Amino acid sequence: MPCGYGILDIRGSGWSFINCAILWRLPTTGGVSEAARRVHVSQPALSRQIKLLEEELGAPLFERVRQRIHLTGAGEVFLPRARRILLDAEEAKARVRAEFGKVRPVVRLGFITPFLDDLVAPAVRAFQSTQEGVDVEFHDLPPRLLLERLAAGDLDLVLLGNFEKSDGEPFHVETLWSHRMEAVLPEGHGLARRRNVRLIELKNEKWISLADSHFPGRNAFFRSLCRKAGFVPRQVKDAESISLLLAEVATGRGGALLPGHSSKLPHGGCRFVRISAPVLTSRLVLLRPRRTAERGVDGLAAHLKSQALNLPR
Question: What is the DSSP string of 117-162?
Fold first, then answer.
């Protein structure tokens, strides 16, 4: 297709990497409505984009089978290649700007709030003391959006906790740190004042977890931790952020399991209690695209890995 014409003309139609990333994820999200909700666009707008693209290509990209969206043969051929072309174009643009333009190169770092003060901030300070002329752009977003924006080429590095293995397949993944999980209980709970608790002692509790729509794979991870202790959790609620989860616990609606590192967040009405048995851990990982790194990305990654060695084990 000639440059500047048709649906792939990002100036004319609004088509971009994020559109390709959304469409590629349609089969895993279940449909257009859920995909649109996750990226904060209207369902009719996304449906129109799909219709225009299919009309231009002359072939359907998706089909519905038993209430699920699946890629057609045309979709499996087109979408990965279209996304690769768009990513290559963005990479080329960034390289030209960095090497020949007057725009300062930028490393785009995504993370979740608990890692800002003792990992992100000191690592970025150390990086900027050695990398003059390179800026760092911060993106504090839910894990689902971090993964989607990394896949779309909108981020260079992402710090995340546990996630679905399939979500990490497109990226280079390094484990930086393993940290202990703790029970989070309402302040008035009978075990909340204990220094340690065995997880099996909480088997009859109601439980709050983090929603897969925002924290992919977290429900499966939570259930696997409970199975290690020998019980199936009675899960009553999913929260869309760590802060909302802590609010649910504080109001007495159930208990939760979180990395002890999360206790730095405001959690009035909650108590973090160390789990003595079984010893449960969560990992912190650094993700990056499997493509040539822009200027500064390798340097910031090295500083993040170095700073992670200083985190409490």
Answer: IIIIHHHHHHHHHH-TT-EEEEEE--HHHHHHHHHTTS-SEEEE-S
